[in-house]
Amino acid sequence: MRVGPFWIGPPWETPPRDVVPVVINPGRAFGTGAHATTRLCIELVTELEPQSLLDIGCGSGVVGIAGSLLGFDPVTALDVDPAAIGATFRNAAANAVELDARQLDATKADLPSAGVAVANVSLDVVGALLSRLNAPHAVTSGYLERDEPDLGFYRRVARRTLDGWAADLLERAQ
Predict the structure, then answer these.
(1) Residue 134 and which of 10, 18, 89, 106 are 20 to 30 A apart at CA?
(2) 151 SS3 class
(3) How many other CB atoms sit within 10 Å of the CB of residue 40?
(4) Residue 173 or 158, more confident
């Protein structure tokens, strides 16, 4: 799958030469990079200046890994699923990037601050997170094009849609 400058695929496939490869073996974690919401999030992240990145609901780690390859640093990946944390560490190693992955419930635990927070989760979780984030920019997805997340302290800068799904680039209102 091509997404922006990236080719995202499993370790048994050979990427084309004209792309940045992101090798993902999701194992039992969500996220091969093929889902529309993942693709939209990565597209929006590629348009931002590299800075610190918080990947909430990291699944296989594909968004955080792509961010790291773009120069985002540090990258912190969070998920409630221990299988996701294991997959994120394995995939980061396979792509020779460093990131911090932690198992926690982002709707309840204290969240680290970041320049950009990415949350590719459900609509209700996005709504719960936006009031808790300490990030000037957020990329949110995991909901349908017809859905409107409660933006809380944020305003929409851009919206992308694909196959009936949506992703939003948000900026914290001052």
Answers:
(1) 89
(2) coil
(3) 26
(4) 158
* Residue 51 tokens, joined: 């800075």
Nearest CA to 46 out of 84, 26, 17, 19 is that of 19
By the 10 Å C-beta count (0-12 exposed, 13-18 middle, 19+ buried), 131 is classed as exposed
- d(CA 104, CA 79) in angstroms, rounded, equals 6
CA 130, 31, 76, 19 torsion: positive or negative?
negative
Domain ranges of the chain: 2-172
Taking only the tens place, the pLDDT of each residue in 94-110 is 999 999 999 999 999 99
Residue type, 117: A
Which residues share a beta bridge with 156? 170
The whole-model pTM stands at 0.92
Helices (H), the chain: 36-46, 62-70, 82-94, 123-130
Round to whole Å and give the CA distance between 114 and 112. 7
